[in-house]
Amino acid sequence: MQALDFPGCDQLLAMIDRAVSSDCQHQTTDCIRNGLAELIRTRAVTLPACVHEPVTDHYARRELYRCEKSGYSVVAMTWGPGQGTPVHDHSGVWCVEGVWQGQLEITQYALREQDGDRVLFEAVGTQIAGVGSAGSLIPPHEYHAIRNPSADAVAISLHIYKQALTCCSMFQPEADGWYRKAPRQLGLDEAA
To answer: Signal peptide span per the entry (predicted)?
Structure first.
């Protein structure tokens, strides 16, 4: 896939390329997280116009680049007011997420027990992440939910995945902290 052409794209991809050359996923995600936060804060990168357009009925996932050599994927997500995800995982794939515009509410969950496709989660922390903040998820610590807490503002985040994230598990709440696990194929919205 060719990268969309946007100001600072080369700088973003060069930073990621340097980071993924490490064999240590902790070192890789630390480098990407710090580099991404710096690029956002200094406004060294301007995301393409398509990223600023929310989709009415779901948060938008737009792949901006997929590296053929290393396999990593760069996805911009556009969160309309109140849009969010259920509790989900990343199918064992590390990810670095940075808030580009607006705010996101991120809740981390710890898996306490599993019984077939039922899992017991405990919410272990919620944070409001603002512009320039970045975090990473490294399996097995990957269970989380994200939402735009604003009633009227659009939020944008940039996600760098070890590889293209095409599926994950979603967890629907039942009772007393238990959730039912269900596989989900992830689509992409048009990026132009």
So the answer is: none
**Bridge-partner residues for 77, per DSSP?**
61, 157
Contact 81, 97 (CB under 8 A): no
Helix (H) or strand (E) holding 125: strand 118-129
HSE-up of 96 (CA within 13 Å, CB side)? 25
pLDDT tens readout for residues 93-135: 999 999 999 999 999 999 999 999 999 999 999 999 999 999 9
3-class DSSP state of 117: coil
Average pLDDT over residues 3-32: 93
Which residue reads 């480098």 in tokens?
A: 31
What DSSP character marks residue 93?
Answer: -
Identify the pLDDT of residue 2. 54
Please give the structure tokens belonging to residue 192: 């132009």
